[in-house]
Amino acid sequence: MKTENIIRALAGTLVLTGIALSHYVHPNWIWLAVFVGANLLQSAFTGFCPAEMLLNRLRGKDGGKSCCS
User: Fold this and answer.
1) Selection from 44, 17, 42, 43 nearest residue 32 by Cα
2) How far is CA 9 from CA 25, 27, 28, 43, 51, in A?
3) Closest to 19 measured CA to CA, from 38, 32, 3, 4
4) Collapsed DSSP state (helix, strand, coil) of residue 28
5) Amino acid 2: pLDDT
6) Tell me, what DSSP letter sits at residue 27?
7) What does the alpha-carbon distance between residue 54 and residue 60 come to, in Å, rounded to a whole number?
8) Is residue 65 part of a domain?
9) Own/partner pairs, 30-36, CB within 8 angstroms, 24+ separation
10) Hey, is 53 helix, strand or coil?
11) Number of domains into which the chain is organized
12) What is the pLDDT of residues 7-30, one digit of tens each?
């Protein structure tokens, strides 16, 4: 699976989880979705994607296709 697809799946999962938790557990969980959305927005402009860097380290990859740059 491409890194780009993994990052998109991770972001979507975190946004949906934050929304569900804010509805069923506590309203402050909405900040999880806000954080993920803000990170996606800034990575579109700056090319800096912490999730991609972490994933590449975990997978043992130094280069490859980037979803954020």
Assistant:
1) 17
2) 23, 23, 23, 16, 11
3) 32
4) helix
5) 86
6) G
7) 10
8) no
9) 36/11
10) helix
11) 1
12) 999 999 999 999 999 999 999 999
C-alpha 36/C-alpha 65 separation (Å) is 21
| pLDDT of residue 66 exceeding 80 | no
Question: 42 is written with which tokens?
Answer: 């800034």
Domain that holds residue 31: 3-59
- Where b means 16+ CB within 10 Å and e means fewer, 2-20 reads ebeeebeeebeebbeebee
Per DSSP, helices labelled H in 1-69 are 3-24, 30-46, 50-59
Residue 39 CB neighbours (<10 A): 17
Does residue 52 belong to any structural domain of this protein?
yes
Q: What is the pLDDT of residue 32?
A: 96
Looking at residue 64, its amino acid is G
Tens digits of per-residue pLDDT, 34-56? 999 999 999 999 989 998 889 88
